[in-house]
Structures are given as C-alpha cells and as structure tokens.
Write a structure and sequence with these properties.
Blueprint lengths: L3 E3 L2 H9 L5 E5 L4 H10 L4 E6 L9 E3 L8 H4 L5 E4 L10 H22 L3 E7 L7 H11 L4 H9 L8 H20 L2 E7 L22 H16 L3 E6 L13
Parallel strand pairs: 2-3, 2-5, 3-4, 5-6, 6-7, 7-8
Antiparallel strand pairs: 1-4
Helix pairs in contact: 4-7
Amino acid sequence: MEADWISSSETGALVNSTAILPRMCITGMSGLVGSILEKHLKQRFRLLAINRRNNLPGVPTIRADISSSAGLAEAMRGVRVVIHLAASSFPPNAGSTLINTNVTGTYNILEASVEAGVKQFIFASSLSTIAGHYPALRPEIEARGSWPKEELRALVSNLSPRPDSVYGASKIWGETLCRLYHDQHRMGCVAIRLGGLFRNNLPDPNASDGWIKWCSHADLFASIDQALDITEDGGFAILNAITGGGPTDLIGPR
C-alpha cells in the first residue's frame, strides 16, 4: 500500500511552530500506548504518526500498512527517532496476522529507518517474550506478597526468552532484529518489554496476578526516557518496563 500523507492547516502550523525540535516518528500511535505517550513527548519532539487506519488530531499522520515497505523510507526522511509500537496482539496465536505485522512489519520499519538515516530506534516489545516462565515462577512470586520494582525487574531480566504465544515469539524476533541492526548499521536500538498498560493507570482488575505484569504510566515514561538516552549514545539494550508492588495495587494507583 502506498503511504498516504495527511495534511491540514492545523498540522502545518504545528510543524512550523516547532521546527527547531527533532522529529520523532511513532508507528501505531493511535493505539493505547501511543495515546499515553503523546503528552509526554510532544513538547520535546515534532511528532509524526504512521497508522494503518486512524488520523490523529494535531499530529501529522501517514496512513500505511507496514506489512508493505512502499513509501515508508520516504515518509521517514528527516526523522531522528522512531518508536515502533504498531503490532497485532490478538488472537495471540493467529500466526498469519501476527507474522505480517509483527515480523514483516518490524523488518520493513527497520529497513526504512536505515534507508532514511534514522539515528535512534525504540521497539515496543512485551513481557510475553518471557511469560512462558511464569507458571513455574508464580508460586515464588505470590509467596512474597509484594515485590519492589527493582527486585522484580532483576528477576525477569535474568530470564531467557520463553514466549507464551506466537505473539511473544514475534516480539523475540523484533528484539533479535534490533540487535542485528544495531550491530550492522550502528543505529542506537532499545527494546522495551512492556508490562500491561491500562488507560486508568491501574493493574488488570480481572487478573489476580495483574500487578505482577503491570506497567504504570510513570514507568512507561521513565523507560522511554532511558531508551532515548541509550540510543542517543548509539547503544543497545533490552529494558523491562514493569512496576512491581503487590496485590493491594489492584485497588489504587502507584
């Protein structure tokens, strides 16, 4: 599909008024994570969205299907930072849909980033990359009752990749591809394994262990800022965006 540039007098004024800021492209920005990140980033970057369907008010939007590479590199000319959020997650074992978006799509976005001269690439991965370990770990985690953030992150950081679904496996592919593109093209790349995010900034109330996999909005922002610092220096890392806490966090913000 050819990329379709969506412009208006409103978005044109926005770009002109922020011309001194570096440009950041966010794929899948119309989703939940993108909508949460917009307010955090829009004062520091000129934002550009790549979405399959939706246009965003006040944000220049390119409508494109990332399973096709057509027009992506051209759209990214002048972009310094890419945050790649676009992904299919449900059903978590729908192979063909997940492969088209999460495997081919991630490859296309990375290729376009290299061609366009992007310096910093941040990939939205998932705790599903290690969630295959959870059944064995659950007794230990629940016995503790409460886990400070850094201790829980240290625990999951030492786990080898073990997906719980085709979705998780597709995210492992994305992480590995980021490592390759960092090594071969010297582009700063960070993969962030996101915990569960919700608009109300609370853990999943329908899961008794929702707090184990939860990421607060504040920890999302902190992980993005850390990734920006790492990639600005041309580095590579895999970060775990997880908040920690305990079952009481299911009833109140953190």
